[in-house]
Each structure stands twice: as C-alpha cells, then as structure tokens.
Amino acid sequence: MEQLMRNTLLFLSKNRLANQAAKKWGLRFGASRFVAGETIDEAIKVVHNLNKNGIVATLDHLGEFVFNEAEAKESADYCIRTLDAIHQSGVNSNLSLKLTQLGLDISKDLCMENMRQILNRAKEYGNFVRIDMEDYAHNEVTMDIFKELRREYGETIGLVVQAYLYKVEEDIEDLNQFKPNLRLVKGAYKESPEVAFPNKEDVDHNFIKIIEKHLLYGNYSAIATHDEKVIEHVKKFVQEHQIPRTQFEFQMLYGIRVQMQHELAKEGYTMRVYIPYGNDWYGYFMRRLAERPANVGFVLKSMFKK
Ligand code: FDA
Fold first, then answer.
1. Residue nearest to atom 30 of ligand 1 (CA)
2. Which SS3 state, helix, strand or coil, does residue 96 take?
3. Sequence-ordered list of residues with C-beta below 8 angstroms from that of 274, at least 6 positions apart, any chain
4. pTM for this one?
5. Among the listed residues 168, 162, 57, 149, the one whose alpha carbon sits nearest the alpha carbon of residue 99
6. 295 lines ligand 1 (CB under 6 A)
7. Which sign, positive or negative, has the C-alpha torsion 276, 278, 281, 284?
8. How far, in Å, CA of 163 to CA of 161, rounded?
C-alpha cells in the first residue's frame, strides 16, 4: 500500500499541468513546511535564523519543467541573484541547483553557458555551487558536465551521487581523480530495477558503503540524510578512522527532523540545511511526500484548515 502511494506521488510529481497551476496558487497544502517562501527575502530570513543557531545552509531556487531558452536564462538569473543576496546579506549559505533548470533538456551548450555565468559569480564571491542529481536519464550527462566544469572551476563546484544506483560505487572511484566535494544521498526518483536497487535495505547498505569509501579517500563528504542509524554509524566511523570534522558535514532538508538538526549543530558537527524557495514548489513537495507517505495526512489536514 505504502509503495503504491509512493509511486503515485512520484508519478504526480511529474505532472506539468499541476505544476503550472501550483505556481499560481502560492504555497498551499502545507508546502510551507518544506519550502522556505516564495521570495529570496523570505528565504534569506530563514537562513539568518538558522545561522543564529549555528546551522549553515544551501539555498535552492526551485525550478522544474524548463523547456525554452528564455525560461532557462530566467532560472540562471535567479541563481545569480541568490548568490548576490547571500553575499549582500552576509548569511552563511552556498547554492544548490539542477541542470534541467538551466536548459539541459534543450541543449548541453545552453546549460554549460548558464552554469559558467553562475560559477563565475560564485567564484567572485568565494562561494560554492552544488549540482543536485536528478533522475537516471540525466545522470551521465550531469557527470560529464560536472567533470568539465570541475576542471575549469576547481573547488567552486560539487556534485551529488545517489546510493540507490548500482553504478554509484564505480562513479565514486572514477570521480576520485578530482578529489571532489560530494553530497551522498539515498536517491529520490522512481527508477527501474535495471539501474537501481528496488529494496530499501539494499539502498541503505550501499549508502553506508559509499559514505565510508568517499571518506576513506580523504574527500569532503556531505552526508545528506535524516536516517538516525546512518548518522550514528558515521559518527562512530569517523572517530575510529580519525577523520577530522573538517572533512565532512551532515545535511538535511528544511522542515525535516528539525530537532536533530539542532542537536547535531550543538554537538559541534557542521550541519547544513537545504532550503528550497520560489513559486515552483510542486514537484519538490510531491517528492518529499513520496519519501514519507504518512505526510499526506498532514496535507489533508492543511486542506481543511482556513
Ligand atoms: P529514509 O528515507 O530512510 O528516512 C529516514 C527517516 O527520516 C524516516 O524514517 C523519517 O523519519 C525521516 N524522513 C525522511 N524523509 C522524510 C520526509 N520527506 N518527511 C518526513 N520525514 C522524513 N535526492 C536526489 O535524488 N538528488 C539530490 O540531489 C538530493 N539532494 C538532497 C539534499 C539533501 C540535503 C537531502 C537531505 C536529501 C537530498 N535528496 C536528494 C533526497 C534523498 O535522496 C532522499 O530521498 C531523502 O533524503 C530521504 O532519505 P533519508 O536518507 O532521509 O532516509
């Protein structure tokens, strides 16, 4: 039943009409639990409050279904404005983005051109940009773009890898040539069993395996999870292998396991919260519901609230 609900929500997350309608509705159905606001000012305020509690951030201007050059350019402008706002306000945050937002489905060249503009600005400010990993259809091209831009921009850029993919271990080995800053996640999209582990236990097992591998390579690891067991395991593992706290950070999503975010920061770990903002919240919100269908209950409640 839960699996059916999960698949339905992931299917709905790709509905373009619902996505367009949602942009006009404003944050609804409890989406504000996961999305920090529709404007950059609202998002910066959220970052500021987290920073006061010793938590750092990564801001993401939400954008899905970009099918023409003008939309891709507009998305790139939003990313640049986000970097400007971070710089001007002095908050501690970097930037996360998706390549499809920047026109990857239109052309790789357009996407690269937009990425270079964003990375030039990030470099000027001494900030950092991380490419989120999307569905499997975009995986190889995202890896290629990362490698090309990593050669040009060095440590200004980082990538995400997904533990549910069979090939992820090979990717980690291959990427080690760059000594990259990687965010390690379980993976959020619906993938075929031909490319990804269908069982959660296998994903969890592979997640630990790739975290350990990347840490032992001596590379910076952003361990992005709300899974307490994984976090406890990492805490022990780094101690046993004398891996310094400067070589890794924990990351969680805005609105999820908030108390644990504060506890980890108090314990002295770098805790970074991923903060999405903007009016294109529909797909992101649906993926968060799919991760925990129990959340649908709170959506239904919010629909009946005035
Ligand atoms: P798991 O799903 O096992 O959850 C562990 C526990 O956390 C649950 O039992 C529940 O208590 C809580 N929890 C998890 N999700 C919840 C939710 N939505 N609502 C309420 N409670 C929840 N994926 C991807 O494919 N590409 C990417 O670029 C990213 N980027 C990214 C950045 C950051 C900072 C994070 C934290 C996650 C991502 N992800 C992602 C998503 C990731 O792949 C994964 O889908 C989610 O993190 C959920 O998996 P967990 O590791 O939390 O474990």
1. 132
2. strand
3. 57, 58, 60, 96, 224, 251, 252, 253, 254
4. 0.92
5. 149
6. yes
7. negative
8. 7
Give the start-to-end residue ranges of the domains of the chain: 35-280
In the three-class reduction of DSSP (H, G, I as helix; E, B as strand; rest coil), residue 169 is classed as helix
CA–CA separation, 272 and 258 (whole Å): 11
- Binding positions for substrate: 98, 287-288
Give me the chain's average pLDDT, please: 91
Q: Which amino acid is present at 182? A: L
The label of the residue with tokens 């060249």 reads: 109
The yes-or-no answer on residue 41 being catalytic is no
| DSSP bridge pairs for 251 | 224, 272
ipTM: 0.97
Percent of the chain with pLDDT over 90: 75
Q: Rounded to an integer, what distance in angstroms lies between the CA atom of residue 43 and that of residue 35?
A: 9
185: which 2 tokens? 């996640």
Q: Does domain 35-280 have CATH number 3.20.20.220?
A: yes
| 135 in contact with ligand 1, CB cutoff 6 A | no
Counted residue by residue, the chain has a size of 306
> Within 13 Å and on the Cβ side, how many CA atoms surround 267?
14
Residue 288 alpha carbon, nearest atom of ligand 1: 18
pLDDT tens profile 52-96: 999 999 999 998 778 899 999 999 999 999 999 999 999 999 999
183 is catalytic: yes
